[in-house]
Amino acid sequence: MMWNVEEFVRAAGLTVDELAAYVDESQRGLPPVIRRRPPHELAERLGLARWMREGGMTPEGYGEFLHAYLAEGTRLHHPAYLAHQVASPDFPAALADFVHGAANNPMAIYEMGASAATVEFEVLRWMLGKVGYGEDGGGVLTHGGSLANLTALLAARAAAAPDAWTDGVPGDLALLAPESAHYSLTRAAAILGLGERAVMPLDVDGLGRVDVARLPDALERVRRAGRRPMALVANACSTGTGLYDDLRGIGGFCADNGVWFHVDGAHGASALLSEEHRHLLDGIELADSLIWDAHKMLRTSSLVAAVLTRREGDLDAAFRQRASYLFYGDQGFDLIGRTVECSKAELGLKIFLNLAWRGERGLGDYVTRQYATARRFWELARERPGFECPYEPESNIVCFRYGAGDQAALRERLMEDGAFLLTSAEIGGVRHLRITVMAPATDDKTLEALLDRIAEGEEPIGG
Questions:
Q1: What is the pLDDT along the chain (463 residues), one digit of tens a residue?
Q2: How deeply is 278 buried, as exposed, middle or buried, from its count of CB atoms within 10 A (0-12, 13-18, 19+)?
Q3: In a 3-state reduction of DSSP, which class is residue 388?
């Protein structure tokens, strides 16, 4: 059935009104940041079974459903949202999602979305320039950092074992990574056919940062085990702590020893836009491959992640495939040869519209502000009795402890009434509370209120 355009216009208007109210009240911190109704209760409240069985939704019925749906979700625009590394999206990116939802141009094949593909080309050119790869680099946008890491390691595998695509993976490859690396790296090693045992740990300091001085020892361990390094991974920044590895030191070691250098910059590469913090990425241009998520610190909605390589040909070598119904003619403008996905969303439009509205400087100012807010929390926490902060933050992520009790239980107490949402992480085997400052609405008042709530009813350290 063709669209009823009049009905669409009415429903779209209701959508805009509901979302505007939702974001406004979220930014002002009026409702709980999270609700935790069990799935069976929530399904009943939303009338899911009835709607799926009977149909017949009208714009008015949709408006009522959407109001309830949004009310039960997690509010990423809320000042007390301090949890997972997912953006409080800016509205231009939301407009891009709306456009894609209607136009639906899956543009890994150029003829399926020339405008979307061209936007992606230019966004990637901009990102390559920021990293320092210039005209020689290559890139593609994927649906998320996990898929981006997999794609980058496919390129690394192609460099180390060019025949792996056709003949299978040699049994002597190894992936060197710190234990603080994102779980998707180990998952990628298994998917690629290396197996988890091929992931060999790098020596780190007490906070999980790669110890550059001990890299020769790690490489020697790999060789003694009868393996050869496919790639070495560094964090920029670590998912758990938000701390950056020494990219220049690691990159120099990899260059001297002929080891593929991969940087997981999913969260922290956006600091390239901040004059105050870009030094944290010194040496990133030495990486053979890099991932950079826009749905974290570039404020796009989920999911948009870039895979960037220093040499364009390395990315083109990641996939070796034929399909007569897709791969034919001049492939110069098609992206399907660089990505797992064929029906790929118009991802570049989200980044482009955020840039078009805010500019590089505006996005850089956002990064600077969020990093500064996290540092402010660190300063406030250190001034209060009972709080322990194991390191000075380098990003918008801060780990800390209060008291000697169960930090996971403390987190649950903070979330009981939906007043705050934060996560936790282990450092040196010890559980810590963890905040990630994502929402622009988070301010000193929020931070002080969180510290007050944590201290309520808890025994401080040494108490």
A1: 899 999 999 999 999 999 999 999 999 999 999 999 999 999 999 999 999 999 999 999 999 999 999 999 999 999 999 999 999 999 999 999 999 999 999 888 889 899 999 999 999 999 999 999 989 999 999 999 999 999 999 999 999 999 999 999 999 999 999 999 999 999 999 999 999 999 999 999 999 999 999 999 999 999 999 999 999 999 999 999 999 999 999 999 999 999 999 999 999 999 999 999 999 999 999 999 999 999 999 999 999 999 999 999 999 999 875 544 455 544 568 888 888 888 899 999 999 999 999 999 999 999 999 999 999 999 999 999 999 999 999 999 999 999 999 999 999 999 998 999 999 999 999 999 999 999 999 999 999 999 999 998 666 554 4
A2: middle
A3: strand
Structural tokens at position 302: 């989920």
Rounded CA separation 233/176 (Å) = 6
Is-contact 304 293, C-beta < 8 A? yes
- 267: which 2 tokens? 């969260």
Question: Residue 409 is encoded by which pair of tokens?
Answer: 């239980």
What is the set of domains in the chain, with CATH numbers?
99-354 (3.40.640.10)
Q: Which residue type does 249 have?
A: G
